[in-house]
């Protein structure tokens, strides 16, 4: 199983901290999984200009092809101006409309206030549904108060991150089994 984590901003540290914790829990619990972190702050991405994702070069091609090869994606994103960062939106623009078909996508969101959960419900989930993702119904929402010196200090958040990882893997396995059974119906 290929799991790709996306730290969806090119600034700040909270989302990266949360993604590091999340992917470490995934590595500990599922050592056979191939787990990759794409921290968008570490890549020189170009803005989408309408080409197919495989026609880009350099970091943009690497990032989009890594996402397209994934079985499961864990998106970590901060909330900026009650919305998603432009760097994450650009990823969605670079991929095809059905770019998340047969992929399980789970979400981890950082924000300054609890009111920003609406960004997930009103913006992020509809984009993922439009792109044909199987969305893990629950997500982890972290506020500033859950961090201290670049560490997560809320035990409930750590438990929910562990559960998010489990739900992501279980849902990915379930959908893989469904696809196998469906493919077995065809006799060619």
Automatic annotation (TrEMBL):
Domain NADPH-dependent FMN reductase-like: 1-143
Protein name stated in the entry: NAD(P)H-dependent oxidoreductase
Domain of life per record: Bacteria
SUPFAM superfamilies membership: Flavoproteins
Statement: the UniProt record of this protein carries the keyword Ribonucleoprotein: no
Annotated source species: Paenibacillus agilis
Entry GO MF terms: oxidoreductase activity
Record keywords, A-Z: Flavoprotein, FMN, Oxidoreductase
Pfam name, any one: FMN_red
InterPro entries: Flavoprotein-like_sf, FMN_Rdtase-like_dom, NAD(P)H-dep_FMN_reductase
């Amino acid at each position: 199983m290929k799991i790709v984590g996306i730290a969806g901003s090119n600034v700040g540290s909270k989302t990266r901290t949360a993604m590091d914790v999340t992917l470490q829990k995934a590595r500990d619990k599922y050592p056979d999984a191939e787990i990759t972190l794409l921290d968008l702050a570490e890549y020189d991405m170009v803005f989408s200009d309408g080409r197919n994702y495989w026609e880009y070069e350099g970091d943009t091609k690497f990032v989009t092809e890594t996402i397209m090869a994934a079985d499961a994606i864990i998106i970590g994103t901060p909330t900026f101006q009650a919305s998603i960062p432009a760097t994450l939106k650009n990823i969605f623009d670079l991929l095809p409309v059905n770019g998340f078909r047969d992929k399980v996508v789970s979400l981890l969101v950082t924000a300054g206030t609890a009111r920003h959960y609406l960004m997930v419900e009103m913006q992020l989930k509809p984009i993922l549904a439009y792109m044909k993702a199987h969305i893990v119904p629950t997500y982890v929402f972290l506020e500033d108060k859950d961090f201290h010196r670049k560490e997560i200090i809320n035990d409930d958040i750590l438990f929910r991150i562990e559960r998010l990882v489990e739900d992501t893997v279980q849902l990915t396995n379930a959908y893989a089994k469904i696809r196998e059974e469906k493919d077995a119906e065809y006799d060619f």
